[in-house]
Amino acid sequence: MLPMFLAVVDQTIIATALPAIAAATGELERTSWVVVSYLIAATIAAPVYGRLGDSFGRQRMMYVALTIFIVASLLCAASNTILLLTLARILQGFGGGGLMTLSQALIGEAIPPRERARYQGYIATVAVCANSFGPVAGGYLTEHFGWQSIFLVNVPIGILALGLTMRLPAARGERLAWRADPGGVVLFTIFVATALLSLEQFQRADMQALPIGGLLLAVSIIAIVLLVRQEGRTPSPLIPLNLLKQSAIWHSDALAACHGAALVALITFLPVYLQVVRGVSPSETGLLLVPLTVGIGTGSLVTGRLVSRTGRTTVFPIFGLVLVTANLLVIALWANEFGTIGFAGLMLWNGVFMGTVMGVVQVTVQSAAGAMRLGEAAASVQFSRSIGAAFGTAVVGTLLFAYLSLKNPEAARVFKMMVEGGHVALAPEQRAIVRADIADAFRAAFLLIAGFTACGFFLALTNPMRRI
Questions:
Q1: Within this chain, do residues 13 and 141 fall inside the same structural domain, yes or no?
Q2: Which positions fall inside the Major facilitator superfamily (MFS) profile domain (predicted)?
Q3: Percent residues over pLDDT 90 in the chain
Q4: I need a surface site. Which of 68, 171, 458, 462 has the fewest CB within 10 A?
Q5: For residues 290 and 132, is the Cβ–Cβ distance under 8 A?
Q6: pLDDT exceeds 80 at position 220
Q7: End of a domain among 143, 163, 179?
Q8: At CB < 8 A and 24+ separation, what contacts does 433-439 make?
Q9: Residue 357 sits in a domain of what CATH number?
Q10: 322, 327, 326, 332: which is closest to 447 by C-alpha?
Q11: Number of domain units in the chain
């Protein structure tokens, strides 16, 4: 679980260091590439590590992923330009994508199917703690030791993870034969890179960015069509279409995408809502997010134990997503009627029942795939969740800006300043002028997020794998 912690923290710890990085390099307009490059590389790496782990051993590939991650962290700390830092982050993403996928696969390899759900609860708790810990640690380290320290801290933790991985028992059983699929890797890379970059362009909601985003989206569509044809012909595909054709697996992967879209969009834009609409300070915003993260960890642990005890799977996300959708509707329509304690209660409710999903998804996919294909199964879930998270965040951001642009262009301008520059970029008098319009825009955004969870409910309801 330590490699999983490293990978998740590395995605969040950098957020609070970006202003310092921009100031040190003098390249503010390119700072977003430091985040986007890691996400693209990690998403591409996930299925590659899944396939390599099934063929050469997941423990052995974990050594490779950790080594790449440690070396890349040192290179990130040594970078003095955005270009060098972006290249180092790409390498770090190639390591981080393996940490995420192989952690899941190693648990599936070592733990019996009924017990996997309990351990998935532990993993979800680790991920939530890492998401909460990352920004706090990033701010402290950057302020006291410089932005390079957020990368250097990975080195001793990564070495410790290497030592613990070496203590794992050797895996037994057959392995899949390895055959390279260079065409699949190239097309998959083009698809992921252009799809995520197009979403990043659309999220800007800038008329100048729309043609670029449209062109990138067209390239990604062509790439995915060619990828499906390529993977259908090759004897050893990077993306196992025969695995994804299984009803239980594609239902679960689609559910992971919906869950990622809802959760990451909520976590991304909720602080903006709290500070602008409700007038909450940044420190109070952090406290109001604690019930959400604690709730997710609690819900994951409880769901994992219930699945291990009963063998039932889909009943928990079905029940949980109904309540999450209802909760989001309440937030969309009546959030301003709740005080601080009441809103914290809504966040706790949302977190607990959001926690009923991902552990069940991983267990279902691993059970349906079988022991020999655990790596591919874990990679498919990770890839689906990453794409869903990127898509959901981009669509919600675009909706917010489009709504404001149509209703109040001045509010749209101020909102864009706030998204790009944070709380400091929004002056008090501007906040008073646009608060009502932004509140209306957020109602639409919360309704859209509720739509994501409603789709997830339908996918859980129709998943044929009810027990493990």
A1: yes
A2: 1-468
A3: 24
A4: 462
A5: yes
A6: yes
A7: 179
A8: 434/276, 434/404, 434/408, 434/410, 435/276, 435/277, 435/279, 437/404, 437/407, 437/408, 437/411, 438/273, 438/276, 438/277, 438/404, 438/411, 439/277, 439/336
A9: 1.20.1250.20
A10: 332
A11: 3
